[in-house]
Amino acid sequence: MGRGKIVIRRIDNSTNRQVTFSKRRGGLLKKAKELSILCDAEVGLVVFSSTGRLYEFCNTKLLPGLV
Asked: In terms of domain of life, where is this protein from (predicted)?
């Protein structure tokens, strides 16, 4: 039996929203890293939180002159 479908909408509770953001951000960064390794792909990811904080990932192929 699979998981049930969830409705994708804004989370009203700010604490729950922040926890969900942190968990999903970590998973998204991990998937970007896995994609770059497994598929030898050039991957760049930029995420801004609701407070304006920046989270980023890029593999070294994207910016060879800066690494």
From this structure: Eukaryota
Residue corresponding to tokens 């604490």: 15
The beta strand positions in the chain, using DSSP E, are 44-48, 54-58
**What percentage of the chain carries pLDDT values higher than 90?**
64
Determine the residue type at 2.
G
Q: What span, in angstroms and rounded, lies between the C-alpha atoms of 32 and 42?
A: 10
Helix/strand/coil for 54: strand
User: Which amino acid is located at 23 in the chain?
Assistant: K
pTM of the model: 0.73
